[in-house]
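[job 0412] stage=fold_complex status=start
inputs:
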Amino acid sequence: MGINNTPEIPADFPGKVIPGGNGANILVTSLDEIINWGRANSLWSLYFGTSCCAIEMMQTGAARHDYSRFGFEVARPSPRQADLIIIAGTIVNKMAPVLRRLYDQMAEPKYVIAMGACAISGGPFYYNSYSVVKGADHVIPVDVYVPGCPPRPEALLEGMLMLQAKIKTESMKTKVFPIDGFDEGL
Amino acid sequence: MDTTTIKNNFRSEEYQINMGPQHPATHGVLRLLLTIDGEIIKKVEPDLGYIHRSIEKMCERDSYQQIVHLTDRMDYLSSHINNEAVCLTVENALQVEVPERVKVIRTIIAELTRIASHTLWWGVMGMDVGALTTYFYGFRDREMINDIFEETCGARLTMNYNIPGGLMFDIHPNFVKRTKEFIAHFKTKLPEYDLLLTGNVIFQKRMKGIGILSKEDAISFGASGPVGRASGYSCDVRKHHSYSAYDKVNFKEILKTEGDTFARYQVRILEMWESLSIIEQLIDNIPEGDFFAKTNTVIKLPEGEFYEKVETARGELGVYIISTGTKNPYRMKFRSPGFSNLSLLNHIAVGGKIGDLVATMATLDLVIPDIDR
Amino acid sequence: MTNEALQNLISTWIPELEFTEEKSQFLNITVQPEQLHQLMTQLKSNSETNFDYLFCLSGVDWGAALGVVYHLESTAHRHQLVVKVKTEDRENPTFDSVWTIWRTAEFHEREVFDFFGIQFTNHPNLKRLFLTEDWDGFPLRKDYVDEINMIIK
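[job 0412] stage=fold_complex status=done
writing structure:
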């Protein structure tokens, strides 16, 4: 806006410099905490399971390991109402445009967890296969990778909690959209 | 204007809608192109290939032990039985005789897998017609079987426990005890399933009389498994081409004659009772002995063609190997049960409503990676 | 019926068939493409053979020739049979479709067309099944090369 908020400090200044900032920083930090807390504790995921990892994702939602105690209450079938995609299963050449379209239909802020070896790098289908995309991060940007074939429900829960911790470090001032610049190369 | 004039003046047209690859009721990535007239379905055209991972081409460059690892992921709900199919083909080709202990343990584990697959099917079937509670009941019992497998085989879902020649390790000392506990527990829970869903008036009205398949059509379309047996077609591979220890046990083949959706549902519930009875007959008499027969590290099948079939939870799985004497197969073909079961969807769903299509697809019990391979 | 009796019966219908039982657990019949449909219709309709269940239809690339292998079974008599048909023409291989005899052949023949390029006459809907419509080439043939997607080991 033309107002320089960071004053020049001379090189031989004695004593300690306490940055004053502008008083608004305190307000923004507390607002950040509240918004991040709200976003992290109520992520609703999209029903997207292509193959075997989908069964382990369903087991994570069932009664023994329950992901709804962490806030992932319901799984929505429509991408317009979800803010998390858990890619559970192999992505194939024919399915990749569908995945991209689903990701584009979701509203910001949106997050992605790649679950299982196939979504991370092609998995057991890496060699000699003509139709498998070698990793879901060729198609959409991924936040958390959960390894395993298939990963245990406890491993998926740890991945989800890691995503919650990552969301809590975000800030309104340095907003980053992971899809910017993705198509031109990571 | 009276209602007759209104009806005659209202023209209805057909239009196409897409039941897309990402859909909660299609049990995987299956795309259906529906041509509908109001709510009545005129044509159903499946569009496959959204999970085609080219397993048959990969098998032409893999050794036989590596192929067993890939077949786990085809029909992941009956993964032990898929492994058993490939192992049986290789063992019959090499003329290797596996010990009795191996046959009995393979049978027990195959029946436990069948029960696990049917409980998951039952849980998801309830969800498809709107009863969300059944999901939790089905998964609760499946968790107990997963615990038994994890202790013995090391993994919960994709376990490579069967290898050509026998088993990978011997069973855990707790296996027999935990299986018996599970049988006792499950016998009290299976009547709960009937209480919750089978006797429910809304459920019965929703399922009876739709999706009717006659016996001649079932044979012509190649339907197998519970889908064929509900139409009166006796197609159980365990009876007609026995393998492992199935010729030593007494069990009934469940046949129904109506051929509608409710009959397919009942066949699967009764099959769970039969599986429990098979396990009970075998669990106390596991013979002592080795848990594998010696084969070479590099397996080379003799020249020729070999075919074996087994009964998975979905139907008849066939493994066809053409070998030229090297360590990789020349051509490997999997005849999957879901492929033939899907081809009759157009035949039985036409004329019904969209809600009936969802219920019919749930009883066909399709697993899409099995169809797409 | 035993393999002997089957061989004696079927060889009376069409003279140019080849029968063999070596290197396989079933009786194998090799038939020329022109007589395929006639043989299949008779195998199903004759009451002594009564092969009403086609349980496997696979395409094979034999190196120089392309072929299709049919596995048949009878639900009444419980005997099994294998029928093979081959052609040397790799540019435009064509066989008769058997979907009017066994309805399950409709999807299986689409799969064979998708992977090998073999055309079937009188098929109601011969399009690609698993791969996208604009895919180039036939993947399961032995001379298929795809440097972009396949990482060979």
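[job 0412] summary: The beta strands of chain B are 15-19, 31-37, 40-47, 162-163, 166-167, 304-311, 316-323, 331-335.
[job 0412] exit 0
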